[in-house]
Amino acid sequence: MAKVKKARPGKTSGKARIAGYVITGRREVSGEAKLAFAAVGGAQITTAETIAPVGASMTIGPALAFRISRNLTRPTAADIAAAIDIVAAAAVVSRASGTGGIERMVLGASCSVEIGALNLPALGCLLERDGELVESAAGTPLLGNVFGAMSALAASSVASRGLRAGTLVMAAGIMPAAPLAARAHYTITFAHLGSVWVVTQ
């Protein structure tokens, strides 16, 4: 079991500057992993639990949020793993499939954790609505190579200046997103890392 120590969630700015990135990945029929990257502003990252209003096309899905502790320019996967100081369970609220319609990233309690102590390729995740299981996942392709995916992000045009200290990188697409319903209570739980809650109006 991974050893974790509770830490304060990192603060984010309400300004429109880039505060983080979202990586989604899926396995193609050919067996290759296809990655997509998107930048998110500080106003989109929150620890608030209530989402309002709820649109008919909105969805919710789990993500892992990693905080980068120092500036990285074209880093290797090993460089990124060594630079992460905080990991948190997170929820992705979107208006459309993929990364283009991200409305909000909701962060749960963050943990100071030794990355090597987490078995990311086999990390289990549950998505529940009003106490009922909606979806579960473990051993997803993205988490199996999440630091390689972050290295690809840092070298992409989306993060043209590399990854800056304090940046949050969210690994999403861990399981299919679920429709976001009104007047519901959603819980996303990661083994060893705790939960994040989203309450809709």
Overview in brief:
This protein has 201 residues and is mainly beta. The protein has helices spanning 77-83, 141-144, 146-154; strands at 4-7, 18-27, 33-41, 45-46, 50-51, 59-68, 84-94, 102-113, 125-129, 132-137, 168-172, 178-179, 185-190, 194-200. It has a single domain (4-200), classed as Alpha-Beta Complex (Fumarylacetoacetate hydrolase, domain 2), CATH 3.90.850.
Any chance you could write out the topology, listing elements then pairs?
Elements: E1 4-7, E2 18-27, E3 33-41, E4 45-46, E5 50-51, E6 59-68, H1 77-83, E7 84-94, E8 102-113, E9 125-129, E10 132-137, H2 141-144, H3 146-154, E11 168-172, E12 178-179, E13 185-190, E14 194-200
Parallel strand pairs: 2-11, 4-8, 5-14
Antiparallel strand pairs: 1-8, 2-3, 6-7, 6-11, 6-12, 7-8, 9-10, 9-13, 13-14
Helix pairs in contact: 1-3
